[in-house]
Design a protein that fits this description.
Length: 296
């Protein structure tokens, strides 16, 4: 018997499939992270694939008890990833792909579990008119937690990087919420904070009717102002970091902020469904933004 035949075989991780999943699911994220060197790029793609898979559970057309069971399985997998001494090794290929990044970049279990907790909020939903505090918690879990994992991989895991993750996560997630109001409403969801709805005399009893109420445009712009404040703090935080390490963060911020800027330029009537507007950032523009950041 040879020495090699005695070794425990390592799981085969299909990194090309993971990269393809990222490219198909989010061209913004793909082009921002594509500029990274291979070890960091593969680590980021594995993190995104994990987030995408958990999100698919939360948004999937399956029964609530099945979602709970699936999310519990993901929690068990993450616990196994971080505590192999007392737990069986992870079985999911995506979690197996996270093993090297966790070791190389000292990623925290709490952030992976926070992402699952955020998806649990959607799974237990639909989320309808959360309080401002609940919305902020949701943004922290589904976006800022991902940012905390990313800045660790970028090489800015300290206070400066975490500050960027805090504000950029909220900026990007609020931009998504503002962009997807119509789509979310068709699914019975409404992520607009109840304090803003009340201030603008908007009833949240039926999410599909919110956009047709007189105060909707003013409410939308108020939440857009919140996002703008987080973008300002994101760029201020990035200025304190090593630009070369945080180039991918700059790209994501630039793409999403341009989307927000173009949505803010829409008429009040158009805000009812910003996705119908063809001026939002396209694939070619995203590539140009990525190249400009690299050249800078």
């Amino acid at each position: 018997m040879t020495v090699s035949s005695c070794k425990t075989s390592e799981p085969v991780i299909d990194r090309e499939r993971i990269a393809d999943l990222v490219k198909k699911a989010s061209s913004s994220f793909y082009w921002a992270m594509r500029i990274l060197r291979k070890p960091k790029r593969e680590a980021i793609f594995a993190v995104y694939a994990f987030c995408r898979a958990v999100d698919d559970v939360a948004d999937g057309p399956i029964k609530l008890e099945v979602k709970h069971s699936a999310l519990a399985s993901w929690r068990n997998e993450i616990n196994a990833l971080f505590d192999e001494a007392s737990s069986p090794a992870p079985k999911f290929s995506i979690v197996q792909a996270l093993k090297q990044p966790v070791n190389d970049f000292n990623l925290r279990k709490e952030d992976f579990l926070a992402v699952i907790d955020g998806m649990q909020m959607d799974a237990d939903g639909p989320v309808i008119a959360p309080s401002h505090a609940e919305l902020d918690l949701y943004c922290d879990r589904v976006a800022a937690a991902v940012g905390r994992l990313c800045v660790g991989i970028f090489g800015e895991p300290g206070e400066k990087g975490l500050n960027v993750a805090y504000h950029q996560g909220r900026a990007l997630q609020l931009t998504n919420i503002l962009r997807d109001v119509g789509e979310d409403a068709s699914d019975g969801r409404l992520y607009l904070p109840k304090e803003y709805l009340k201030a603008h005399n908007i009833s949240a009893n039926d999410p599909a009717l919110v956009m047709g109420q007189p105060g909707f445009a003013a409410l939308w712009r108020q939440l857009a102002d919140d996002a703008e404040q987080h973008y300002a703090k994101t760029y201020a935080g990035l200025a304190q970091c090593d630009r070369r390490k945080m180039r991918a963060s700059y790209i994501m911020a630039d793409i999403y902020h341009l989307n927000l800027t173009r949505m803010k330029a829409l008429s009040d009537a158009q805000l009812a469904d910003p996705l119908l507007n063809k001026r939002l950032v396209g694939k070619f523009e995203k590539l140009v933004i990525a190249l400009k950041s690299v050249w800078a």
